Amino acid sequence: MLSINMLANAVSTELIRLVTGKLFTEEQIRSVSSHAIGKYLADWLPELGNEKAARERVEEARSHIATASTIIIDMQAELNDEAEKLDKLLFDIEEKKKLAEHYALLATTNQEQFSAFRREIEEVLRQELVVQSEKGKRSRQVASAFIWLVTLFLGAALGTYFKEALAWLKFILA
Predict the structure, then answer these.
(1) How far apart are CA 58 and CA 112, in angstroms?
(2) Same domain? 145 vs 91
(3) Of 3, 33, 129, 143, whose CA–CA distance to 11 is shortest?
(4) Backbone angles phi, psi at 46, to 5 degrees
(5) Residue 1 domain-assigned?
(6) pLDDT digits (tens, 9 = 90+) for 86-140
(7) Rounded distance, CA 33 to CA 4, Å?
(8) Are 84 and 141 in the same domain?
(9) Are residues 165 and 155 in the same domain?
(10) Same domain for 34 and 79?
């Protein structure tokens, strides 16, 4: 009987192999992969449809997780950049606030003190301008008188000899 069972199993295995195109039945694959040696060979054996789909979904989920990780890292870098920009902006605002307070303090200065200070500066400036104008005054007057005399003589000479100079110029150009 044992030989008939073995023969029936062998024939059924060959028939299943011919019909399905598979080398092993699902039961044979499970029995081989459940043994200690079969666990090492399980990657090379054909898988069940559900297990194969599950592995594909796991791989797809891993790729989605990797993509999401890169997106999150990029977003975190952008947020860090924005935080740095905001910190710089806060620093600039504080500096401008201090400057505005300084000018507000200057604006509230007593007007009498300011006008007295302005009168003092105007007086010192006038005195300095007078001193600067006195320096070289004599040489400027002499130079001005010399230029005036030269212009006077040239004007008189040109007025006297204008007709003769014009005739001479026409003679040269013709």
Answers:
(1) 84
(2) no
(3) 3
(4) -65, 145
(5) no
(6) 999 999 999 999 988 888 777 776 666 777 778 888 898 888 888 887 887 888 8
(7) 27
(8) no
(9) yes
(10) no
Tens of pLDDT, residues 29-57 = 666 556 655 555 555 555 566 677 777 88
In a domain, 5, yes or no: no
Range of the domain at 155: 111-174
Tell me how far apart the alpha carbons of residues 42 and 52 are, in angstroms, rounded to a whole number. Answer: 13
Give yes or no for a contact between 36 and 27, defined as CB atoms under 8 angstroms apart.
no
34: tokens are: 């459940």
User: How many structural domains is the chain composed of?
Assistant: 3
> 69 and 19, same structural domain?
no
Answer whether 0.85 is exceeded by the pTM. no
Question: Within this chain, do residues 39 and 53 fall inside the same structural domain, yes or no?
Answer: no
Q: Please, are residues 165 and 158 in contact by the beta-carbon 8 Å criterion?
A: yes
The answer to whether the beta carbons of residues 32 and 24 sit under 8 Å apart is yes
Question: Interhelix angle for 162-173 vs 137-160, to 10°?
Answer: 70
111-112-113 Cα angle (round to 5): 90
Tokens 């090492």 belong to residue? 40
